Amino acid sequence: MNNITIGQYVPGDSWIYKMDPRIKIIALVLSLVVTFTISSFNHMAVLLVLTLMMILTTGIPFLKMIKGMKALLFLLTFTFVIQVFYVQSGKLLFETDMHLSFSSIGALVVLIVLYNIAKKRTKFKSTLFLAFVFMVFFLQAVLPYGKIFSYEFNLYEGGLYKTGFLLFRILIVVMLSSLLTFTTMPTDLNNGLESVLKPFKVVRFPVAELSMMLSITLRFIPTLLDETTKIMKAQASRGVEFSESKLKDKISQIISLLIPIFVISFKRAEDLANAMEARGYVIGAKRTKIDQMKLGLVDLVSVTILVLLLTFNILVNTGVIHAL
Amino acid sequence: MGIQFKEVSYFYRGIKNESFEAINQINLVIEDHEFLAICGQTGSGKTTLVQHMNALLQPSKGEVQIYEHTIPVKKRTDKIGPIRKRVGLVFQFPEYQLFEETILKDIMFGPKNFGLSDQEAEQRAREAALLCKIPEELLSKSPFRISGGQMRRVAIAGILAMKPDMLVLDEPTRGLDPKGSKEMMALFNELHDKHGITIVLISHDMDIVSRYAKRIIVMDKAKIAFDGTKETLFLDPNFESYHLARPQAYEMMTYLSESLNIPFKQVFTEEELLEYLKEVNHE
Amino acid sequence: MAKISVENLKFSYNSKDEAIKELSFSIEEGKWVCVVGHNGSGKSTLAKLLIGLLKADEGKIVIDGLEMNAENVHDIRKKVGIVFQNPDNQFVGVTVKHDIAFGLENQCVKQEKMVELVEEFSKVVGMNEYLNKEPHQLSGGQKQRVAIAGALAMNQDIMIFDEATSMLDPEGTKEITNFIVRLNKELKKTIIAITHDLEFARRADHIIVLNKGSVVLEGTPDDVFKHQDILEQTDLDIPFGLKVYQQIIKDEVLKNKKELVDKAWAYSLKK
């Protein structure tokens, strides 16, 4: 059986792997605050470069990072389009008339159909998507025949800067968050979270219990996946075709999967609760942990750097430093 | 017609993209009306092999002929669904597949998926329930309110209601007590003898295997290491490498033959042992 | 003094069926007792009662001098380890290491000591190379071994095995069965093994046969197996050798063949 790593842990041994998980979590929060307290494009660009350089030192392959961002492509494109239309500051870089005409609408319809067909047959879905978006506007620019409605498209410098700013920010946030999940094992993350949230115990927040719940969830995800596969096979052997897409059938298919999984899970919950009690687990009681978390030099350095960056940002924002 | 494996291999990929061979160049013919047992250690490829028999898995190499269907499918129009009707596969702990509101409905699930009307499906379900000795009062009850052994019978009835030509069972007696085990095997025997259904059984229990199976296949490290009868299996020179137990009657016979100096004869069941002892002692 | 004693135990899940009608028995320290019965005879209910997961309606349970009640059930659990039937449903930890440590963590054992104990007892059960493996990568037998290691690490003198091998394949069953024998013979643990496998029960010091919630037979394996008629009523399968022996001594011709009878009896005793 293979070692299914839940989340996306990538094994490695660079400095980031030696960090205490508590500090990693705190560092991520601090970095996010730093990112969101930047207001100038130039600073954001600098932060992006710094982030990229840092990632290089951790040894995580870039390809993995990029793959994670494919999911954001739609959001990014949408943002770009909105900003480009909306922001009207700075130099005017480009202008053209866009037309919603019979010819352009007709062409758009054809484009949508072609896109949907091509989508299923190509591997380069992201590139196709970008090409599609480009064509949507290109067609509107070059087909004025049978004009119904026209509008101006003005591309200003400000639009590009704003888009860049937002784009870089999203990239930084995604990369830093991915960095955490790529370099921290789910159990360590759980331990780190539990420790970091300990102060909330004062307001009766069940930190230890939530941590135990998370731990049990992590433990059972691979097992549940295996069992779901087995049940799918069993139901497939009874004639369920999981690839059929009629809605009515889909509901029946899902029920034939969900109910057995629920039944197994309830039995499991009962058995597990019995086993945990029999082994001396008492909710709310004090327990020690076999996992140890130790602070090291890396942790100290990371936090210091981030605090400095944050201070710098605050000083800039409050006008104390007139930055470049 | 039955099933034919032609040079079938199946690979699957691990996390680091390395390739694991679950079965390797399997050539096997299963005729109709056979009663066949598949034995072998955990990991020898038995489960992978039987999952090819109802096209749950498709070979990485080679070809499987299941009645009139060929896997992998050559034409896009060939549907796999009908295969599942003819070859019924029952997994280990099949009681986990139950989910309907009532036992009757659950047994009807299979036939309905294959296009039978509610009326026809119900008819089939009642017949199957009868065959599996599920009391009629139970049919309107929830499948979750009965014992584990009964749940297993309901699961098997659910497959039988599809009226398969072949029944493939993965350790059907695992987890059952001795009485439950006996009853289950008696059912399969009846299905084979009276209804002509081909039975393919994965089992570790050599007592059951030698009592019921007419043909035994031993899987070892992804290949078929032995294909023959019980009479030749236990005398096979490589028997030790299969890591199989001998039937209890066989072991006792070996002991008695040595300690009493009587000629050894292969016996596989309690009845055969006693019969032989009586024969030998009838001077 | 008996290590475990049960007196007039009664329990029912609902007011209709009585899972345990009237149970009394006692177990000496260091003995291995098998409780046998068909499914539904009350065996598993007994296991849960002994570990305080269920509360008896009537009667008392005394373990190591403590009469079980709501206050001391936690202390009793420190003395009694239990391995359940489903290897997955009792595996709490994310890895082997974490699962063996689970009981120790509950007892607030110091971190360094835990690491030592986990290392030591994982070796005893042969799982020390698997400490970082996750449960879905293990076989049923391996998971049960981890459960045993967890109980050993808690230094519990009494261990209950509730059908611990019914869901395992033959290799796993052999593994665990051998461990149970070692736990009793080498480590001198008091063992209660609940099973429907009479072949396994034969090797125990003492057998208690349950049928429909009551004790119908009790004694050493030799004593118990003499009562074939009672055993047959419980739907339990008598060990093969014994079955054949009993058929031989019933047969007109064979019962007079002294050598055969002797050898058959000798075979039936082989463990």
TrEMBL record, chain B:
Keywords: ATP-binding, Cell membrane, Membrane, Nucleotide-binding, Translocase, Transport
Entry EC number(s): 7.-.-.-
Compartment(s): Cell membrane
Major site of localization recorded for this protein: membrane
Provenance organism: Acholeplasma brassicae
Cross-referenced SUPFAM superfamilies: P-loop containing nucleoside triphosphate hydrolases
GO function terms (MF aspect): ATP binding; ATP hydrolysis activity; ATPase-coupled transmembrane transporter activity
Family that this chain belongs to: Belongs to the ABC transporter superfamily. Energy-coupling factor EcfA family.
UniProt protein name: Energy-coupling factor transporter ATP-binding protein EcfA2
Domain of life: Bacteria
GO terms for cellular component: ATP-binding cassette (ABC) transporter complex
Coiled-coil residues: none
Occurrences of domain ABC transporter (ranges): 3-246
Membrane topology: Peripheral membrane protein
Assembly and interaction partners: Forms a stable energy-coupling factor (ECF) transporter complex composed of 2 membrane-embedded substrate-binding proteins (S component), 2 ATP-binding proteins (A component) and 2 transmembrane proteins (T component).
SMART domains in the cross-refs: AAA
Its biological purpose: ATP-binding (A) component of a common energy-coupling factor (ECF) ABC-transporter complex.
UniProtKB/TrEMBL annotation, chain C:
ABC transporter domain span: 4-237
Keyword Cell membrane: yes
Keyword presence, ATP-binding: yes
Gene3D superfamilies listed in its UniProt record: P-loop containing nucleotide triphosphate hydrolases (3.40.50.300)
Recorded GO MF terms: ATP binding; ATP hydrolysis activity; ATPase-coupled transmembrane transporter activity
Keywords in alphabetical order: ATP-binding, Cell membrane, Membrane, Nucleotide-binding, Translocase, Transport
Family statement drawn from the similarity comment of this UniProt entry: Belongs to the ABC transporter superfamily.
Locations listed in the record: Cell membrane
Coiled-coil features, chain-numbered ranges: none
Protein name in the entry: ABC transporter subunit, cobalt import ATP-binding protein CbiO
Chief localization: membrane
Record GO cellular component, one term: ATP-binding cassette (ABC) transporter complex
Family annotation (InterPro entries): AAA+_ATPase, ABC_transporter-like_ATP-bd, ABC_transporter-like_CS, ABC_transpr_CbiO/EcfA_su, ECF_ABC_transporter_ATP-bd, EcfA_1, P-loop_NTPase
Species, as recorded: Acholeplasma brassicae
